[in-house]
Amino acid sequence: xxxxxxxxxxxxxxxxxxxxxxxxxxxxxxxxxxxxxxxxxxxxxxxxxxxxxxxxxxxxxxxxxxxxxxxxxxxxxxxxxxxxxxxxxxxxxxxxxxxxxxxxxxxxxxxxxxxxxxxxxxxxxxxxxxxxxxx
Length: 135
Fold this sequence. Notes:
Elements: E1 2-4, H1 8-31, H2 36-53, E2 55-59, E3 63-67, E4 73-78, E5 82-87, E6 90-95, E7 103-107, H3 115-129
Antiparallel strand pairs: 1-2, 2-3, 3-4, 5-6, 6-7
């Protein structure tokens, strides 16, 4: 189970990439010199494509992994490091790394990720965290 980025974010990056590439290539054709918007457009295009296919969070058998848009796992939280709190706006997932303050990882009402994925992940984690025999 995983949580994806909200689809409007890579779509906005793609629109900005196309705009920058179009402006940069137009300027290159008119001036005959290299233009920096071409580089910006290429970087935005790579970011848009990676965010379109990437997962923000992946639920493994023994942990929850947080990934960057390129797919590399940046942080891992064991289940004993996670807690779910219910607020007035819904459920919020917190992760606590050893020796650090709790960090908000996911909420049902967030804008940067797919809400259906977030609800499904929170449901699965709620069941797993409440399972009998959990240490």
